[in-house]
Structures are given as structure tokens and as C-alpha cells.
Write a structure and sequence with these properties.
There is one protein chain. With 799 residues, the protein is α+β, with helices and mostly antiparallel strands. A 9-stranded antiparallel beta sheet has the order 5-6-7-8-9-10-17-16-12, with no helix packed on it. A 9-stranded parallel beta sheet has the order 31-30-28-25-21-20-19-33-32. An 8-stranded antiparallel beta sheet has the order 1-2-3-4-18-15-14-11. Helix 5 packs parallel to helix 7. Its EC number is 3.2.1.-.
């Protein structure tokens, strides 16, 4: 008689002793006597992949996160064996794998420990679902700090935190709430002035514990799949971030208008309301490049349709908005209304493109249209079909961008707010349940949307924005931080979220300025716009349930502050565009937390508020009401107060006075800051001068400016302008050297140079070794100087 029907519970299992190993080109495989295999792949001297299996063989190697165009190769690889361990050595690091239990340690070439296993890899059999719960624990040193992990509403330094990655529709989330909309299982460790990164490429629900449960242990685990992680060595945080971004991919350059100011609301309708909003921006002379249409533009919330009562002729409306400089961006959600008269539904049904439950029927869930089915975007045929649906919107009606929402995926009226876990997915030929596909569903939707918009917008560049994302989504889309709240706490959260996303590979991100839920005071909105113009994606958005949130919903003082800061963003567009160029070319984040900017300075390790915008502008928002100043940390080096031109020496915390229409801004000494004239939208004006604000520094400083046609793909054929400026400051001399690359001829012919902080009175000016008489220069009071853009060397000589 059977007396115990429960399966034997084995608890945590561990690798046993290594019995053999194989070395083939860049990969070394280690086998234990309990069928665990560890495959170590050296992708670069500083990038090593560790992949474990417990079943004696590996499943198909497939990842949505890794960029297939990622190039790799190492300079040196040596594998050796000693009594107790195997050693893998590159020109940057050495890895030791213990023979007794497969635990591993990574050292630099000076034998300093960078990262070592505590328990190392272990697993627990999942009898409920099959497969394993895979776990990893690493020893953590005293003073070690942790950063990254994408969209998290908590302190920038994650030490002492436990985090969860499961894409979730988290309306009106709060500080420290977990999980949120995005999944980026990548973190950066910093200890003893050395940085490293871990990317745990596993799309199941994952967890990270940064010394929360045990003081000197960092661990991460997943509820299925493989223990598959990449180790990235710095030693500088810059090296870790650029290597990770290169591994998971970089976007193409957006059109310049996508970096302008955007206005959104749930919802602008009917057409008269959209036109009224657009006209008010132009009347008040607040620059704006895009107006968004939320779900109410559709017929009964059916994607790819228009409500003819609200928008009787969308093509005409979109064209008229375009004449006034506004690009139209529309929302598209994944839920397809179950309606046999609806062409999109009928076609997907005929082609069997909807997600199914484990026992056969289509997955059904309620969202805005009511009962819906949902396309399986992990199926390449579905993505191709979805891309084709954008033809009318983009090429016929003239919409310029698409906004993907509710793609966590979000489902209403169910406890877990998403698909049941038994839903099946194609997963590009690797069939699986929703447990594995959930976290990448939104990314694959954005991917399909991107390919559709790109196809029909050509020869212009596409613009996509998504709410949910997994590592690698940056190849296809920008993002925003989801349904935030109009509170001062959320202003603080937004500041940290966008910094964290920037160092997590997803730089093109912003928050809903002013807060999506509830209603901001005028003061809160002003402080938020002052921060938001320094985020790569800049959009005001609100639910509309609590009142209006356009700049003119507040008093004249708030309108003036909004105009002032949006004007500043438009002036700084060449600087911002250059930041983006460096992001797509080199993986350099556009926003740099202070710890990224100077990890050697321990004072930066716990700073949340201050960040460097690009390479040379320091930003610190005002995050409390009734504040006309704040304490902030100035990084090491020389900086100028943007508003007063007062010089400040960094490496210390100082009090900075501000006004209501200012926030603390500082410019790095030696910087060359390019500025356009204020435009109401990108491309409105033809201008013959580019302003260059040049800040004096004793010593040398390099600055760069990237420009192209602002849209299209000619930049990929070399038709761009890349200017490299080097300033050299001496006691009584400032030398500005200019080198140009690229075949693009900028439309302006002159530079208007504004010299700031000169410690001497100007006696003479030489352009390319030719002394210029002051009489022949537009040299005005205030140190403005007009020079031809073709100059190569400019000398400002003091008395």
C-alpha cells in the first residue's frame, strides 16, 4: 500500500566535483559527476558569459536581449589546470573554477578579487511547473555599492535592497514599490574603486538581493529557465555601461523633432480640442513638436481605427497640424477587440495569430475595448503582420510616431493584472508558457511596431515609445516611466528613474511631466518642467481626470517658467543631439549619475539628485516646495554657475541660491556649449549662426558637436558634421582649435562665440594665425565674437 504520495523534496541542490572539461576556441565546458555543465564563453577580454545546465545538456541558445550585431573577440586567452582549480585568463581578468564544487572567483591581473561565489550556483526543482528555480549567491565586500536594474522607484544605490523583475501595470506606484513596468536584470557593482557588471539574461520572474537578507551576500534567482549571466569588468563604471549597452544593442538616431517638447493627455478629442491645444502653444510661443492622441481617437478603442465623430477626416487634420509644425503621435495597445466585423480581429483570427491557453482556447482578457484577444508578438509571422498594419496610419494619414501602452501585458479585472501563466507563446520557435514570455511581451510588441513604422515612414526615421520593456528594447524604442503621480515624492522618483535607466542601457527615457495621476500645483509643475527638459524624452502627460495640465492651466508665472525652460531645451538641441550621437555610437549614457561621472570620489556613491547632462552640464532639480535654494554636491573640477557665471571649485557640498524660475545648473570649465536660436518647432527657422558658449579653463578641455540633416538616413553615408573643439587656457591666452569630420555642410556660415570667465582683458584676436582688427569684427560688449565656421584655430590674447 502507498503510504506517502508526496514527491520527495530535495531542497537546494549544488554542483558536485568536476570530472572533465573541454576547451574549444572561445568556450570552455566543465562537467560534474551529477550532470551539471558550466559553459564559460570569453566574448571579450573583459566580457565573459557563464551558462549552467543541470540536465547534462543545454537547450537551444536563444535570447531576445543580445544584439545579433554585437561584435566580440579577445586579445588573449589561456586555460590552465592546477591542483584545486581551473584557471581562465584574459588580458584583463582571470577566472578560477574550483574542482570540488564548481564555485568560481574572478580576479584582476594583480590578484585582487573582483567577484567571488558565496554558495555560487544552486537550484531547486520546481515540481509545480517543471524545470528549476535557478539561484546564484555572491560574496559582497564591506562598502560595496550597487547600481542599475533599470526602472526602480528607489535610491540610486541599491545596497540593502531586494528587487523583483516582473513587468507590471503599476498605476500610481509609490516609492520603493516593486515590481514596475520594465525588466532590466543588469546591475553594476562598485568596490575598492573597481566596477563590474552582471547581466542575468533570464526572462522569467527574477529577484535580486543586494545584501538585504545577509549583510555580505548578494544573490539573484529566477523562477525558471537557465542560470545564464554575463560578467563585465570595468574597472571604470563607464566601461561596464558601454560594454553592456553594446551587448544588448543601441538604437538608431531619432529624428531631431523627437527630442523636442511633446504634449499629451488622456485624451485630446475631438479634433477641435486638438487644434485648440496646438494653437495655444503657438499663441503663447511655447515650443512644441508633437501632440499625442490617446485611446479616445479610436472607434470603440479598436486599434488602427478612427472615431469618425471626433475625427471626421484624420488625414486632413494631421496635415494641418504638420503645417503648423506639430507631428501627430498615436497610441496603439495590444488588446484586439473581439468583434467579427472588425477587420484586424478577423484577419488575426483567420491566421491563428492570437495567444492561446494551454488547453487550446484563445486567451481572453478585458482591457479598454472590453473582451479582447492578444497577438503573440513572439511569433515572427505575427510581428510581420503587425508591422504591415501601420501602412494606413503612417504612409496614408501621415502619423509620425506610435506609442505602445498596456503591453506588460496589462489585463483588467484579474488578480495578477496580466495573462494567466499557462498561456502559450511561439518564442521565435522555442515554444514556452507565459512564465517565460511575460517579461519580453512588451518589447516584442514594440519591435513589431518599430519595423512597421520604419517601413512606412521611410525615408524618414521612426519614433516609437513603449511602457513595458526588457533589456535590449532600446534597439527599437524609447520609453517613459509609466503612471506616476503629481506629488513631490514622484518628482524625486522621476529624477532617479531616468538616471538609472540611462546607465541601464535605455537612455531615451523620460517621465510624465507634472504626474499622470492627480493634479500638480503650479509650483510642482514648474519644478517638474525644469527637470524634464533635461531628460532625453520630454513630455507632459496626464490622466485628465483631475483637471487640465497644459502650461496655461496655471498662472502667468508658470507659463513664463515653462516657456523659459522649454526655450532652453530648444537652444540646447545640438548639445542634446550630440549626446544621443555618442549614445548610439559608443554606448555612453546621456545622463550620468555622479557616481558614474567620478567613481573615485566616495562622496558620489550615495548621491541621488545631481546628474551630469551630456558631458559638461551639471543639473540638480529643486525637489521640495517653497525652496529658493538647496544644498548640492559639486563634482571635482572647476564649474561655472550657468545663471551667474560665477566659478566654483568642486569636490564639496555647497548651498546654491536659486530663484523660482531657476534650478541649480553648472557648466564644466573649458566646455564649448552649442546653441540654436529658439524655434517653435524643429525646422521652423533658417539661421546663419550657431552660438558657441565657451567657458574659460586654465588647461585643456575637449568638446564635440554632432549635426546632420535632422532626419533621414544620409548620416549613415557619411553626411554628417562632427566638430571637435579643444580649448587651451593659459594665464593670458585662450586657444580654441576646431577639427571637422563628415560630409554634411551645415546651413549656417558663422559661429557667434560667447566667451565666459576670461581672467584677462582682450588685447588681440587671431583667426588661423591672422590678427584681426577689432574694427573688422562684430566684437561687441559682453565678449561676443563672430567668426567664419571654417576656422581651425582661434587665439584670444590678453593684455
Amino acid at each position: 500500500m502507498i503510504t506517502n504520495t508526496e514527491l520527495e523534496y530535495k531542497g537546494d541542490l549544488y554542483p558536485t566535483k568536476i570530472v572533465s572539461f573541454e576547451h574549444e576556441v572561445d568556450s570552455i565546458s566543465f562537467h560534474t559527476d551529477n550532470s551539471v555543465i558550466l559553459k564559460v564563453t570569453v566574448l571579450r577580454d573583459s566580457l565573459i558569459r557563464f551558462r549552467f545546465t543541470t540536465k547534462g545538456y543545454f537547450s537551444n541558445d536563444f535570447s531576445y536581449a543580445i544584439d545579433k550585431n554585437h561584435s566580440h573577440g579577445y586579445n588573449f586567452l589561456e586555460v590552465s589546470e592546477v591542483a584545486d582549480y581551473y584557471q581562465i585568463k584574459t588580458s584583463k581578468v582571470q577566472c578560477r573554477i574550483q574542482k570540488a564544487d564548481m564555485r568560481l572567483s574572478i580576479f584582476d591581473l594583480n590578484e585582487n578579487v573582483i567577484l567571488e561565489d558565496e554558495l555560487g550556483f544552486h537550484w531547486e526543482e520546481s515540481y509545480e511547473y517543471g524545470g528549476n528555480i535557478v539561484k546564484m549567491s555572491k560574496a559582497s565586500k564591506d562598502g560595496e555599492c550597487f547600481y542599475g536594474l533599470g526602472d526602480k522607484a528607489t535610491q540610486l544605490n541599491l545596497k540593502g535592497k531586494r528587487m523583483e523583475n516582473f513587468a507590471t501595470d503599476q498605476y500610481a506606484f509609490q516609492k520603493d514599490q516593486e515590481p514596475l513596468y520594465k525588466v532590466v536584470p543588469f546591475y553594476i557593482g562598485l568596490q575598492n574603486k573597481q566596477s563590474y557588471g552582471i547581466f542575468f539574461d533570464n526572462t522569467f520572474r527574477t529577484h535580486f538581493d543586494f545584501c538585504h537578507e545577509r549583510r555580505n551576500v548578494t544573490s539573484y534567482w529566477a523562477e525558471g529557465g537557465e542560470m545564464n549571466y554575463y560578467f563585465i569588468y570595468g574597472p571604470q563604471m563607464q566601461d561596464v555601461v558601454t560594454t553592456y549597452t553594446d551587448l544588448t544593442g543601441k538604437p538608431e538616431l531619432p529624428p531631431l523633432w523627437a527630442l523636442g517638447y511633446h504634449q499629451c493627455k488622456w485624451s485630446y478629442y475631438p479634433e477641435s480640442n486638438v487644434k485648440e491645444v496646438a494653437a495655444k502653444f503657438r499663441e503663447l510661443k511655447i515650443p512644441c513638436d508633437a501632440i499625442y492622441l490617446d485611446i479616445d481617437y479610436m472607434e470603440g478603442f479598436r486599434c488602427f481605427t478612427w472615431n469618425k465623430e471626433y475625427f471626421p477626416d484624420p488625414k486632413r487634420m494631421v496635415a494641418e497640424l504638420a503645417e503648423d509644425g506639430f507631428k501627430t503621435v498615436v497610441i496603439i495597445d495590444p488588446g484586439i477587440k473581439i468583434d467579427k466585423e472588425y477587420s484586424v480581429y478577423k484577419e488575426a483570427l483567420e491566421k491563428d495569430y492570437f495567444c492561446k491557453r494551454a488547453d487550446g482556447p484563445y486567451m481572453k482578457g478585458k482591457v479598454w475595448p472590453g473582451e479582447c484577444n492578444f497577438p503573440d508578438y513572439t511569433n515572427p509571422a505575427v510581428r510581420e503582420w503587425w508591422a504591415g498594419l501601420f501602412k494606413e496610419l503612417i504612409s496614408e494619414i501621415g502619423v509620425k510616431g506610435v506609442w505602445n501602452d498596456m503591453n506588460e501585458p496589462a489585463v483588467m479585472e484579474v488578480p495578477n493584472k496580466t495573462f494567466p501563466m499557462d498561456v502559450r507563446h511561439d518564442y521565435d520557435g522555442n515554444p514556452c508558457s507565459h512564465r517565460k514570455a511575460h517579461n519580453i511581451y512588451g518589447t516584442q510588441m514594440a519591435r513589431a511596431t518599430y519595423h512597421g513604422v520604419k517601413r512606412f515612414a521611410y525615408p524618414k526615421r521612426p519614433f516609437i515609445i513603449t511602457r513595458s520593456a526588457y533589456s535590449g528594447a532600446q534597439r527599437y524604442t524609447s520609453s517613459w516611466t509609466g503612471d506616476n503621480v503629481a506629488t513631490w515624492e514622484h518628482l524625486w522618483i522621476a529624477n532617479i528613474q531616468v538616471q538609472r535607466m540611462s546607465i541601464s542601457g535605455m537612455g531615451f527615457t523620460g517621465s510624465d511631466i507634472g504626474g499622470f495621476a492627480e493634479q500638480p500645483s503650479g509650483e510642482l509643475y514648474a519644478r517638474w518642467i525644469q527637470l524634464g527638459v533635461f531628460h532625453p524624452f520630454c513630455r507632459t502627460h496626464s490622466s485628465g481626470d483631475h483637471g487640465n495640465q497644459e502650461p496655461w492651466a496655471f498662472d502667468d508665472e508658470i507659463i513664463d517658467i515653462t516657456r523659459k525652460f522649454v526655450n532652453l531645451r530648444y537652444q540646447l538641441l545640438p548639445y542634446l543631439y550630440t549626446m544621443f550621437w555618442q549614445y548610439i555610437e559608443e554606448g555612453i549614457p546621456m545622463l550620468k549619475p555622479l557616481v558614474y561621472y567620478d567613481q573615485e570620489d566616495i562622496q558620489t556613491h550615495y548621491r541621488n539628485d545631481e546628474f551630469v547632462f551630456g558631458n559638461q552640464i551639471l543639473v540638480c532639480p529643486i525637489l521640495e516646495p517653497n525652496s529658493l535654494g538647496r544644498r548640492m554636491y559639486i563634482p571635482r573640477g572647476q564649474w561655472y554657475n550657468y545663471w551667474t557665471n560665477e566659478e566654483v571649485h568642486g569636490g564639496k557640498e555647497i548651498w546654491v541660491d536659486t530663484k523660482f524660475d531657476q534650478i541649480p545648473l553648472f557648466v564644466k570649465a573649458g566646455a564649448v556649449i552649442p546653441k540654436y536660436p529658439v524655434q517653435q518647432y524643429v525646422g521652423e527657422l533658417e539661421f546663419d549662426e550657431l552660438t558657441l558658449e565657451i567657458y574659460y579653463k586654465e588647461g585643456k578641455e575637449k568638446s564635440v558637436v554632432y549635426e546632420d540633416a535632422q532626419d533621414g538616413y544620409d548620416y549613415k553615408k557619411g553626411r554628417y558634421s562632427f566638430l571637435s573643439f579643444q580649448t587651451t587656457g593659459k594665464e593670458k591666452e585662450l586657444i580654441i582649435q576646431l577639427h571637422k569630420e563628415g560630409k554634411f555642410d551645415t546651413p549656417y556660415s558663422k559661429y557667434k562665440i560667447d566667451l565666459i570667465g576670461l581672467p584677462f582683458k582682450i588685447n588681440a584676436i587671431e583667426v588661423d594665425n591672422v590678427k584681426i582688427s577689432f574694427d573688422h569684427q562684430s566684437f561687441e560688449e559682453g565678449n561676443y565674437l563672430i567668426v567664419d565656421k571654417e576656422f581651425t584655430e582661434l587665439h584670444i590674447i590678453g593684455e
